[in-house]
Amino acid sequence: MIFGKIIDKKNNELSKKIDNKKVPEHVAIIMDGNGRWATKKGLPRSFGHNKGVSVLKEVLKVSKNLGCKVLTVYAFSTENWTRPTKEVDYLINLFNQVLRNEIQEIHQELIKIKFIGDLTPFPEALKKIIYSSESLTKNNNSFLLNICINYGGRQEIVKVAKELALQSSSGEIKPSEVNEELFNSKLLTQGIKDPELLIRTSGEKRISNFLLWQLAYSEIYISEVLWPDFNEFEFLKAIIDYQSRNRRFGGIESLHNESFEDSQCSS
Ligand code: FPP
If you measure from the C-alpha of residue 49 to the centroid of ligand 1, how many angstroms do you get, rounded to a whole number? Predict the structure, then answer.
């Protein structure tokens, strides 16, 4: 496979530019563009979703090898129910099939799998395989793969607000005790560090109701590539771009001994 070799060489060159000490621990991805990829090729949209699965497998492998610890992917949003029933059914079936085929390997790789979102409306068969996959991998600690399905950031925030309101009205907590830490502890991502990096493919520049609370300070990388064409090379490019950013979290770059006035004069 000559083509494979060329890609490997390009990836190797890119890998050398990565600072192993600055690899993001948690990467979140909006895998966008499956439908457009398929349509461009004159294929049904389902082909795009199928190819999207193999890309996810590749990105999972690369991110783990690179030293990332958590990968969170947006596989089905609360808004995706508005798609034609045939496509929704296809996706549900695909999740089911992928889990069935891949869970043993995921487990062997010591990856913990977790589904984030309201699973209530999904068919029992899918819920069953989700719960058994989560249970099988619950003690794995080399990597965490979060798959967001029927997930919406606003819905998640409203759910937490309701829980806190109930606790407050029952006297369990005082309104004054509500703070970021308490709020955070009730999110679906409780206990997981916020993503340092969000990647969105297909050139769209929106967050689309994904991890609204958790992405507050994440770096955003938009890739023009459609998700089915995304690969190790594109992922490494995103990491290198992330490493070139100056993360200030609303503060200012370290001024060392310079005073505020000095920095004003020299800027
Ligand atoms: C967005 O592309 C993609 C989705 C809504 C589905 C993503 C699902 C996968 C990649 C499969 C993952 C499988 C598992 C088991 C997690 P789109 O359909 O919105 O594309 P478009 O914007 O071009 O129409």
Answer: 5
In CATH, what number is assigned to the domain containing residue 94? Answer: 3.40.1180.10
Q: Is the pLDDT of residue 254 over 80?
A: no
Whether 80 is a known active-site residue: answer: yes
Look up the domain containing 230 and give its range: 22-152+194-244
Alpha helices for the chain (secondary structure H): 2-15, 34-40, 45-66, 85-108, 124-137, 153-169, 180-184, 232-243, 260-266
Tens digit of each residue's pLDDT (9 = 90 or more) over 8-46: 888 889 999 999 999 999 999 999 999 999 999 999 999
78, part of any domain:
yes
Which one, of 35, 130, 27, lies nearest residue 80 by Cα? Answer: 35
Helix (H) or strand (E) holding 72: strand 70-77
In the residue annotation, 241 being an active-site residue is answered as no
CB of 35 shorter than 6 A to ligand 1: yes
pLDDT at 246: 81
Pocket test for ligand 1, best of 29, 32, 80, 222 (most atoms within 8 A of CB): 32
pLDDT at 6 over 90: no
